[in-house]
Design goal:
The structure is a single chain. This protein starts with 10 loop residues before the first strand and ends with a helix. 48% of the residues lie in helices and 12% in strands. The chain has two domains: 169 residues, Rossmann fold; 206 residues, Dehydroquinate synthase-like, alpha domain (Up-down Bundle). By secondary structure, the chain is of the alpha/beta class. Strands 1-8-5-4-2-3 form a six-stranded parallel beta sheet, sandwiched between helices. α5 links the parallel β4 and β5. It binds 5,6-dihydroxy-NADP and zinc ion (ZN). The site of 5,6-dihydroxy-NADP has 35 residues, from α2, α5, β6, α6 and α10.
Length: 392
């Protein structure tokens, strides 16, 4: 196991009606003037926004609002949010929504208190300072409710990039599984896929003797395998929603990723797809993961075989472990298909003629990248192109 430090001080309020704790929690973490940030309207339609406002008002906390966050959140609204926070002397940001809203909130939080352009953080400048952020989560997926990360798309050139820093970890996150019952099945499935990707990206490691995190990841993948189909069949299954929601947090606050190298090639390669086609991140991952895993299979056949046996219940073929490893990837594909995810470029709406350009951007960014992608293996542009071709 590699050396590590781990500090994840988000306060979690979990369960039915927990959104009514928004006011008391903002107060507890020092907020006096709040920006309520939200997406395209699901929280308005469900009545959640009103309940959150009621909770703030009850605590005597003033607020301003900014809605309109799009999936794959854009830089334009972040600039708008920064201006609003400065003008209104906002000292706390409350994200009410999914990963996109939370990520946009984090970007506004850092941008409001920095001198330069917030986008610098998405080009590698460390995030050291930000306004405090709290979240009321409405979809189990990105894990941003417990992570120090934020992913934003710069409209100019549609560049999708991530930033990270402890200042981005939410002060609190409110997780009420019942809020996820209004999700369309497709979005639920995208969330399930993203959670599983966050687990696989950590499972695929070059570190040795990481039994505790291996076992944690396997347990979470098994949970997703079992609970996922339940919520697709019955969106109002509270207990299954609850298990998935907590799994989504645990999958990505890095408790499963400490002491080991991690992969993140699937995410890097997927981000080009959601930047280019504005598809849901989870749907892009459903197409990307099997291709990346197949391409990298020979790098460590036994690791893929272990996942196949322990997560997917495949039989271990000791004479031919590659057969077992491949069966595990097939089982993942079958599962993703069964919950309604796309499995190839056509189903996703991606185009073969864009492959070269996407592989270039994945490796070089806007020209500033190193030309390589580093993860479970090291990939060059030609490798990334070959991986995209496996998705055709
Ligand atoms: O905008 P509204 O109207 O709220 O609708 C959203 C949106 O259309 C809808 N939705 C959310 N909760 C709902 C609901 N509809 C009905 N009922 C509800 N309860 O779902 C759609 C997707 O929402 P979004 O916030 O985009 O989903 P998600 O949580 O999957 O976030 C995706 C973004 O997170 C990034 C992704 O790249 C993508 O940009 N990621 C962020 C990470 C992080 N910060 O740690 C890590 C991830 O790997 C990921 O990259
Ligand atoms: Zn993800």
């Amino acid at each position: 196991m590699d050396n590590f430090s781990f500090y994840a001080p988000t306060y979690f309020q979990f369960g039915k009606d927990s959104e009514y704790m928004a006011g008391p929690l903002v107060k507890r973490f020092g907020g006096t003037k709040v920006l309520i940030h939200y997406g395209g309207g699901s929280v308005v339609r469900s009545g959640l926004l009103d309940r959150v406002k009621e909770s703030l008002t009850k605590e005597g906390i003033a607020y301003v609002e900014l809605g309109g966050v799009k999936p794959n959140p854009r830089s334009g609204l972040v600039y708008e949010g920064i201006d609003l926070c400065r003008k209104e002397n906002v000292d706390f940001i409350l994200a009410v929504g999914g990963g996109s809203t939370i990520d946009s909130s984090k970007a506004i939080a850092a941008g409001t208190v920095c001198d330069g352009d917030f986008w610098d953080f998405y080009e590698g400048k460390p995030v050291t300072k930000a306004l405090p952020v709290g979240t009321v989560l409405t979809i189990a997926a990105a894990g941003s409710e417990g992570s120090p990360d934020s992913v934003i798309t710069k409209e100019e050139g549609m560049l999708k990039r991530g930033a990270s820093g402890e200042a981005y970890r939410p002060k609190f996150s409110i997780l009420n599984p019942a809020l996820t019952m209004t999700l369309p099945p497709y979005q639920t499935a995208c969330g399930i896929t993203d959670i599983m990707a966050h687990l696989y990206e950590r499972y695929l490691t070059n570190s040795k003797d990481v039994e505790v995190t291996d076992r944690l990841i396997e347990a979470l993948l098994l949970t997703m395998r079992n609970e996922g189909p339940k919520v697709i069949a019955n969106p109002e299954d509270y207990e299954a929603r609850a298990n998935i929601m907590w799994a989504g947090m645990v999958a990505h606050n890095n408790i499963c990723g400490v002491g080991r190298s991690q992969d993140w090639l699937s995410h890097g390669i997927e981000h080009e797809l959601s930047a280019k086609y504005d598809c849901a991140h989870g749907a892009g991952l459903a197409v990307t993961m099997p291709a990346v895993f197949t391409y990298n299979l020979k790098h460590d056949i036994m690791r893929f075989a272990k996942a196949a046996v322990r997560v997917w219940g495949c039989e271990m073929d000791f004479d031919n472990p590659e057969r077992t490893a491949k069966a595990g990837i097939e089982a993942l594909k079958t599962y993703l298909h069964s919950i309604g995810m796309p499995l190839n470029f056509k189903e996703l709406g991606a185009k073969e003629e864009d492959i070269e350009q996407m592989a270039y951007t994945a490796c070089y960014g806007d020209g500033s990248g190193s030309g390589k992608m580093y993860g479970f293996t090291v990939l060059e542009q030609s490798d990334v192109e070959a991986i995209y071709r496996l998705m055709l």
